[in-house]
Amino acid sequence: MSNILHRHTQASLPTAVRGEGVYLYDSDGKQYLDACGGAAVSCLGHGNQEVIEAIKAQADKMAYAHTAFFTSDVAEELADFLMPRSPGMSKVYFVSGGSEAMEAALKLARQYFVERGETGRRHFIARKQSYHGNTLGALAVGGNEWRREQFKPMLIETHHISPCYAYRDQLTTESEYNYGQRVANELEDKIDELGSDTVIGFIAEPMVGATSGAVAAVPGYFKRVREICDAHGILLILDEVMCGMGRTGTLFACEQESIQPDIVAVAKALGGGYQPIGAMLLSEEIYSVIESGSGFFQHGHTYLSHPMTCAAALAVQTIVERDHLLDNVVDKGSKLLSHLQSLFSEHPYVGDIRGRGLFIGLEFVQDKANKTPFDPSLPLHKIVKQASMAAGLMCYPMSGTIDGRLGHHILFAPPYTIQNQHIDEIGDKITQAIKHSFQQVGVV
User: Fold this and answer.
1) Most-buried pick from 125, 133, 228, 383 (CB within 10 A)?
2) Helix extents (H) in 293-379
3) What's the rounded mean pLDDT across residues 181-185?
4) Termini Cα distance of the chain
């Protein structure tokens, strides 16, 4: 009997005891190919000795110093590394994870306008089927109704527009570009409805992760969004917690959209799972308003800029850059996507295969022609996960792909270090798992 409150009280989980490269091993000696990086976290895989030695070296120097009293060399070094590589950001705020980074972003965005004297700005606009974290503020701006439902009485008022989800929502009568402009213009409609002087900002994932399964916006969508934000004087806040830090093939996912945000949040692949770390990066405009005003960001956590987490992240990012691993993300990502397409493009229950870099999703459907999802009462995502684990493969499954209730998908986000043989292994094992899953539910 475990004394841990696990994610599910009925779960019977294997015990992970060792990690090596792209593999994890349980207490029975079983090997699992970590094809999802846990939750798109383990960008360097497991057991990287260089990162481990960096953590040990920092522990030998100093484990912790509170940021109300001190800064640290390693936090300053990590900031110095990130800033020139960021999409035009000026400062960075190190926290313990993605939800904290997004919570900080929301509070900073409000404080920015307060210090400008625009105290009437109170509304955030985000997108349906988005996910921005599990703290109450981050959950409020998230657009997944299943996650929000029981906590609604506790959430701040937010507003949601349609996602950019071409597979589901593009009309047969419109081009991809026109579809993107149409759903982007919903932002302007919502701003007009609320009053532009009451809106703080628009929040979006450049590439939607867990809730919809690696959904990228169509070309031109985010450029239009940036135009609308600029026209109405509101902030563009990008959530790159899952899709950033190289996951899609560039260090920041928004680079591929050719836009510059006002605030961007990162986590997961920032530290690669070696230590818990996230970060909020902000523009010079926002920083200068705070600096010339109160000079104080009215927020904080005990473990801000924790030296050991910063040491781990600096080592991870140094290795990613030095070893040109983003080139491998692009190359192996293209190969993995092509391999999955060759295996499943004709599969009757795989409706869409999508992705960018090493961030790839498979969406399941009951009727491929009509894109009809399986009945939500069928726990297909859990069945596929169990079959995958039995086959020695970790993928990231989710239900509620379409609206928080309907739809199922799986997500692949393997380490940036994968090689061709691992792509073949992923293909073999997921083929086996999907075949077994649909046999189990009795549709083949």
Assistant:
1) 133
2) 307-322, 325-344
3) 98
4) 38
In Å, the largest CA–CA distance within the chain is 66
Structure tokens belonging to residue 265:
């949040």
* pTM for the full predicted model: 0.96
* Two tokens, residue 315: 């080592």
366: buried, middle or exposed (CB in 10 Å: 19+, 13-18, 0-12)? middle
Between strands 396-399 and 393-394, the pairing is unpaired
Separation between Cα atoms, residue 63 and residue 349, nearest integer Å: 51
Question: Which helix (H) or strand (E) covers residue 92, if one does?
Answer: strand 91-95
Q: Burial of 230 by CB count in 10 Å (0-12 exposed, 13-18 middle, 19+ buried)?
A: exposed
Query: How many of the other CB atoms lie within 10 Å of CB of 198?
Result: 13
**DSSP-assigned beta bridge partners for residue 361:** 354, 411
Q: Over the stretch 316-360, which tens digit does the pLDDT of each residue have?
A: 999 999 999 999 999 999 999 999 999 999 999 999 999 999 999
Structure tokens at 350: 């795989």
Alpha carbon 22 to chain centroid, angstroms: 20
Closest residue by Cα to residue 102 from 201, 249, 230, 170: 201
